[in-house]
């Protein structure tokens, strides 16, 4: 198993260091990457690791209310929750990503959660080629303008503007699902040149109506183009460079 643990510089990394000082055992498969704040761990980084064959990624940071950057750990938690949700929709085992809070004096907890996470990943098994391909698609999703906007506005919407947390979580999940569907559509169009909504739906296993309305939305944004009607079916193609 290959496992990466992102540790924030202020709490989780000193906790990992303390585990070493106390000679507490944790799995040799674990590789630690120090970051200034857990909030700096972008979903794209997690997906890059999975795309490259890493079997599991854990993000560790300060306990809620103790973040040196005020809210970075809460941002990290929202991102990991969204990743776990969309993993289930995209064919990646949700157990492959996890978030944990570890204080500087919690060396024993660091050793415990890394052992526990390693057992979970062993149960999930080595990451598969299909999962790595799904991670590649999700990288495009989380790099999209819509997802960057929705994720970036989450703290302001929830904490400053008073938007209901569960409602906004639903917005993020719906946006992520739509972006995944659009990436699947684009992938099929790149491979085949031009297709109808029904043909795409059959290939990716999605309802034709959902595929059609997303194609229309993508056409309005100039991502796909109308290739005309063939055998009573509107066909769509892809703009070069999309």
Automatic annotation (TrEMBL):
<dbReference type="Pfam" id="PF02662">
    <property type="entry name" value="FlpD"/>
</dbReference>
<keyword id="KW-0408">Iron</keyword>
<dbReference type="GO" id="GO:0051536">
    <property type="term" value="F:iron-sulfur cluster binding"/>
</dbReference>
<dbReference type="InterPro" id="IPR003813">
    <property type="entry name" value="MvhD/FlpD"/>
</dbReference>
<dbReference type="GO" id="GO:0046872">
    <property type="term" value="F:metal ion binding"/>
</dbReference>
<keyword id="KW-0411">Iron-sulfur</keyword>
<keyword id="KW-0479">Metal-binding</keyword>
<feature type="domain" description="F420-non-reducing hydrogenase iron-sulfur subunit D">
    <location>
        <begin position="3"/>
        <end position="125"/>
    </location>
</feature>
<keyword id="KW-0560">Oxidoreductase</keyword>
<protein>
    <submittedName>
        <fullName>Hydrogenase iron-sulfur subunit</fullName>
        <ecNumber>1.-.-.-</ecNumber>
    </submittedName>
</protein>
<dbReference type="GO" id="GO:0016491">
    <property type="term" value="F:oxidoreductase activity"/>
</dbReference>
<dbReference type="InterPro" id="IPR036388">
    <property type="entry name" value="WH-like_DNA-bd_sf"/>
</dbReference>
<dbReference type="InterPro" id="IPR036390">
    <property type="entry name" value="WH_DNA-bd_sf"/>
</dbReference>
């Amino acid at each position: 198993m290959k496992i990466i643990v992102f540790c924030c510089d202020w709490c989780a990394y000193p906790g990992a260091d303390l585990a070493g000082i106390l000679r507490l055992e944790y799995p040799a498969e674990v590789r630690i990457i120090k970051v200034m704040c857990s909030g700096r761990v972008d979903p794209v980084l997690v997906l890059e690791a999975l795309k490259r064959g890493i079997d599991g990624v854990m993000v560790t940071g300060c306990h809620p209310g103790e973040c040196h950057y005020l809210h970075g750990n809460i941002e990290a938690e929202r991102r990991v929750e969204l990743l776990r949700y969309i993993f289930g929709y995209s064919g990646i085992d949700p157990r492959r990503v996890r978030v944990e809070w570890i204080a500087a004096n919690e060396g024993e907890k660091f050793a415990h959660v890394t052992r526990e996470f390693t057992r979970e990943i062993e149960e999930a098994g080595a990451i598969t080629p299909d999962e790595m391909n799904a991670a590649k698609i999700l990288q495009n999703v989380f790099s999209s303008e819509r997802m960057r906007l929705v994720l970036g506005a989450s703290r302001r919407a929830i904490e400053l503007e008073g938007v209901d947390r569960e409602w906004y979580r639903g917005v993020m999940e719906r946006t992520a699902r739509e972006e995944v569907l659009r990436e699947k559509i684009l992938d099929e169009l790149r491979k085949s040149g031009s297709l109808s909504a029904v043909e795409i739906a059959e290939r990716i296993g999605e309802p034709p109506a959902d595929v059609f309305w997303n194609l229309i939305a993508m056409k309005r944004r100039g991502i796909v183009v109308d290739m005309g009607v063939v055998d009573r079916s509107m066909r769509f193609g892809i703009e070069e460079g999309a």
